[in-house]
UniProtKB/TrEMBL annotation:
The keyword Hydrolase applies. It comes from the Bacteria. Keywords: Hydrolase. Residues 227-326 form the Peptidase M20 dimerisation domain. SUPFAM superfamilies: Bacterial exopeptidase dimerisation domain, Zn-dependent exopeptidases. This is Amidohydrolase.
Length: 431
């Protein structure tokens, strides 16, 4: 069985590479994954899966939804692609881009495999040493690229789906493959997790390829992902002529500047494992106008949910106090959040046994602690575990020496895709 599994996915490798490169060429950010979701849905439909997508799957309010012009622009790009099923595409319109494929065969456990698929607002490298550029699958959407590996995740999820569809007699129970939007903003999972599909899950699996890890590394379970809250702050002052009547204006830049400095000082009041970052500031209209509005985009992270919430609450109190001091008003909008989570020990051992038996990765690492990233899958992990099920988040080394994540030169070793799909297939059919 194990050797035939490896042979199947080795034979599927070239097709998986084609899927990854197609998705890489058409990157779509959070809630705009129209083309990607449609390509996935039509593939799952062809392979005999029961399809849930669009408004049928998204059952909660979507955080950090893009402006309508962005939604329209990406939908138009997808609608112009001749390879996409227009009827399925229509189900994603408006930013309803989640897709789940369900296949059931006999009695047995319910297993969910989460796959993220959104891209980032980064302009991809066009240097000659960048492989996607050389091989002509670099981003066709200016200003956006897959710089975190979600294109590879999509290909891995499709590889798993195709195997299951052709070997469903090996399944005992129900398999759900969830292709989740908006992972990068930490809001996609919250919009789907309360769907009846996930009301009683026995096992949930998530994974990520890591461009800063050796391709021989497979991490069977991770612990301690940072809990995070992402929020926008809109500070409102009053415009006025900066020379004729500055006293009639209220400059929103002043409280924004003090907030930035004070939040940096706030870090010292918390444990060293917290993160607080002001990633963006937008303010002002012209040098001779008292600035009427400033926007700060901020995130907080901590090793546990309680500390995250304490840090967030302290930041909000600081922001509100400073804006009052300058006679400004402020509005805080929560645009994404993730919890901390720990992989289930029993499921980690199951994954380790599978990886060891497959002999595809030289370094089988049972567990990795104190990760300094946040992961939207943690919301599903906690949901499943609180309902009596088990969950695990795995890591796969995928370095090809192109640097780390979230930068223009990002790329991965594509060989790890078939190996990862093969591991997932093995755990999908294990009782």
């Amino acid at each position: 069985m194990m050797s035939s599994l490896s042979s199947y996915f080795q034979d599927l490798q070239e097709e998986m590479i084609q899927w990854r490169r197609l998705v890489h060429k058409h990157p779509e950010p959070a809630w705009c994954e129209f083309g990607t979701a449609t390509f996935i849905a039509q593939s799952l439909k062809k392979w005999g899966f029961e399809i849930h997508m669009g408004k049928d799957l998204i059952c909660e309010e979507r955080m950090n939804l893009p402006a309508q012009d962005s939604l329209d622009s990406f939908y138009k790009q997808a609608s112009e692609r001749p390879d996409l099923d227009k009827e399925l595409l229509a189900k994603t319109k408006g930013g309803y881009t989640a897709v789940a494929g369900v296949l059931e065969y006999g009695d047995g456990p319910v297993k969910v495999f989460r796959v993220d698929m959104d891209a980032l607002p980064i302009t991809e490298s066009q240097l000659n040493e960048h492989r996607p550029y050389i091989n002509k699958f670099a981003s066709a959407h200016e200003g956006f690229m897959h710089a975190c590996g979600h294109d590879a995740h999509t290909a891995i999820g499709l590889g798993l789906a195709k195997y299951i569809s052709e070997h469903k007699e090996q399944i005992q129970g129900k398999i759900i493959i969830l292709f989740q939007p908006a992972e990068e903003g930490l809001g996609g999972m919250a919009a789907v997790v309360k769907h009846p599909l996930f009301s009683k899950v026995d096992e949930a699996y998530g994974f990520h390829v890591w461009a800063n890890r050796d391709p021989q590394d497979f991490i069977c379970g991770t612990y301690g992902q940072l809990a995070s809250k992402k929020f926008d702050v809109k500070i409102t002052g009053k415009a006025s002529h900066a020379a004729l009547a500055p006293e009639k204006g209220i400059n929103a830049i002043l409280p924004a500047a003090e907030i930035i400095l004070r939040l940096e000082q706030l870090k010292a009041e918390f444990p060293s494992h917290i993160r607080l970052n002001i990633g963006q500031m937008q303010a002002g209209t012209a040098r001779n106008i008292i600035c009427p509005e400033a926007i700060l985009k901020i995130e907080t992270r901590a090793g546990d949910t309680i500390t995250r919430d304490k840090l967030y609450d302290a930041a909000i109190r600081t922001i509100e106090k400073i804006t009052r001091k300058y006679d400004c008003s402020c509005k805080v909008s929560l645009v994404g959040e993730a919890e901390s989570a720990a992989s289930s020990t029993e499921l980690v051992k199951k994954v380790k046994q599978t990886v060891t038996s497959a002999s595809l990765f030289a370094n089988c690492i049972e567990e990795e602690l104190h990760n300094t990233y946040s992961e939207d899958f943690c919301t599903l992990m906690n949901h499943v575990q609180q309902s009596g099920g088990q969950a695990v988040f795995m890591g796969v080394g995928a370095s090809n020496n192109a640097g780390t994540h979230h930068q223009p030169h990002f790329d991965i070793s594509e060989e790890v895709m078939w190996k990862t799909a093969r591991i997932l297939a093995a755990v999908s059919i294990l009782t």
